[in-house]
Specification:
Layout lengths: L2 H80 L1
Length: about 80
């Protein structure tokens, strides 16, 4: 084998290794982007759910206060009826 053939094989081997390494890097980069997008989507879902939970808690507190007010009104009406 001549020196030119050996050099050509070395370049070919290096090129093949570079392509394999580049493919691995691209696959890892793609997985990173996919994971980042999933994380951001999950984060947004959690933010939305937290907002909804706060709103529902406020509504529940308001309903509880209204129920207490109505119970007091019922008691007053019952007292008036007994008189």
């Amino acid at each position: 084998m001549t020196h030119e053939n050996e050099a050509s094989l070395d370049v070919t081997a290096l090129t093949d290794q570079y392509r394999a390494d580049l493919k691995k890097y691209q696959d890892r980069e793609s997985e990173y982007i996919k994971t980042t997008n999933q994380l951001e989507s999950t984060k947004q879902i959690v933010i939305n759910m937290s907002t909804t939970i706060r709103e529902l808690k406020t509504q529940n507190d308001n309903f509880q206060a209204e129920i207490a007010r109505l119970r007091e009104e019922i008691q007053l009406l019952e007292m008036q009826i007994k008189k």
